[in-house]
Amino acid sequence: PRSTPSNSSAASDVYKRQAQTLFTNASEDFDNSNIPNHWPYYYKNQVADYLNYAESYLDDAEAWYQTDLYYSSASSSFKSLINSRFVTYACDYFDASDSVEYIYSLYNKTKILFNTESDHLRNHEINDMISLQCVGIAQKKNLEAEKYLKEANSGIDSGNYLTALYKIAFATERIKSVDWWLNLTPQFETVGKIDNDTISTIAEEYIDNAQQTTAYASVLLQEMGKQPAYLSNAENLLSDARDAEEQNYPAAALFEALEALVQGNLALELVDGVTNGKIERARESASVSISEARKQGVEPILSVSYYELAETLTNESSFEDAMFQYK
């Protein structure tokens, strides 16, 4: 196995267990998401691709697990779960005696699940550097689920039922992932003290910094006739940070602002493109930062996950996305 920050410490066992649990769930869901043979080809063609996606992501999850890239494995398992769930929903939708009633019922059940999980999440306190990371990402996943539920509702209203079903499937897995992240918290040693007021103050500072960086980058790039994806990504992340702040999710606001700041800086740094040298420097810097955090007694859960994703993206030649994850 390759030597990576995720398998170079005692934290490896935690990541491995979490990845294994998720892979098992994804495997079971895939096995249960078969398309009926009696379906007309029209129905099959609309759903078969998603079943193939589910299988492909499951294969990826197993491959990453075997190379000790446990978060990458978990990420692929999540993607497999989304597609398997959509296939199951689509099968039930086509077989329902009243398909419209089915999709409204499914949406309402998912909305109830979302509200229940939101209440559960709000009761989770952030009081140290581990809970800051885990609860913060859980908040982000919850906000993403809310966004997909709104898109599902729009799909239902406009009669795009299969699109709505996919959005509901995506939202459901995002809602379920909240507990996956929250369950990481007690598995690491408590370190550092922090509270919501402090997080909110820091988040506001980073939102301001990201706003200034994005505005500066926008002016310079406009003069150069450039409009990189990093810039629009930064603007979208800034909007998400403000939304998180308004919904009293300060940790999510902080992480969205940090990502916006990184994207804004990358818009300028990579205006001439990504080179192997830039990738290597970013990789080395990320690895050193992870090691330094561990020396101080803090397990950098998010940094490890981003590093792993960068590794997999580099393998897939998605160098611009990899740069963001390394940063």
Catalogue the unreliable spans: none
Annotation, overall tally of beta strands: 0
Morphology: globular
Oligomer: single chain
Q: Average pLDDT across residues?
A: 91
- Structural class determined from secondary elements: mainly alpha
What does this structure look like?
The protein is an all-alpha fold. It is built from twelve helices and no strands. Helix 1 runs parallel beside helix 3 (70-95) and helix 11 (301-315) packs antiparallel against helix 12. The longest helix has 29 residues, at 129-157. The chain starts with 10 loop residues before the first helix and ends with a helix.
What is the fold's blueprint, element by element?
Blueprint: H1 11-31, H2 41-66, H3 70-95, H4 99-122, H5 129-157, H6 161-182, H7 196-224, H8 229-246, H9 250-269, H10 276-295, H11 301-315, H12 319-326
Helix pairs in contact: 1-2, 1-3, 2-3, 3-4, 3-6, 4-5, 4-6, 5-6, 5-9, 7-8, 7-9, 8-9, 10-11, 10-12, 11-12
